[in-house]
Amino acid sequence: xxxxxxxxxxxxxxxxxxxxxxxxxxxxxxxxxxxxxxxxxxxxxxxxxxxxxxxxxxxxxxxxxxxxxxxxxxxxxxxxxxxxxxxxxxxxxxxxxxxxxxxxxxxxxxxxxxxxxxxxxxxxxxxxxxxxxxxxxxxxxxxxxxxxxxxxxxxxxxxxxxxxxxxxxxxxxxxxxxxxxxxxxxxxxxxxxxxxxxxxxxxxxxxxxxxxxxxxxxxxxxxxxxxxxxxxxxxxxxxxxxxx
Length: 244
Hints:
It contains 12 helices and 8 strands. It is an alpha/beta fold and about 240 residues long. The longest helix has 17 residues, at about 225-244. Strand 6 (about 180-185), helix 10 and strand 7 (about 200-205) form a beta-alpha-beta unit. The two termini are about 15 Å apart. Helix 4 crosses helix 5 (about 85-100). The chain is globular, with a radius of gyration of 18 Å. It folds into 2 domains: about 1-35 and about 105-244, 3-Layer(aba) Sandwich (Rossmann fold); about 35-100, Putative phosphatase, domain 2 (DNA polymerase, domain 1, Orthogonal Bundle), CATH 1.10.150.
């Protein structure tokens, strides 16, 4: 099944073939079990500004810069754009709420998947819409020596965020590889859009409440309902058709 999907992707994009050299990972909901806390902190901080905000919105907006999430919700509620000061204060409030919560842990079996990838001699890269250093730094705690400082693309980079292709195009540039030499692991609709727009084969793992069909509709080439655990179990089978 996976071989057919990959062959179809290659033909549609007129690529020579997929020859995997680098694996690009989103962070929240992929490497870190952080989405529940992000959702709760978004809802609380928005409520403090009298902005209605739901868990579904948080998952749909996941991956884009926080300033854009705030701007969309604010304009929808008040019919005008927020000031830079409001955006900064609301985002800082959101960050303060999440800092007060219990520590964020790793996604189950993320370490095992990363070890498989390391054993295959593949490079790993982080491509996240997060701009919170306190959370990004957790990767070095849970996955030491896995994501080198120059292998990280975050919201702190001066580029257009997801769903634009820019974050994944930057990752390709950093890695020095072509789109057919990479694969993306994502869980968010906007992240999937970004990766697909960059021309990269995209595996979506569903780790939230959204229907898997949403990830397929956004362009994911493979969608796994079992999250990181299922991907870890199936990585050997999938990657066999990506590395050949």
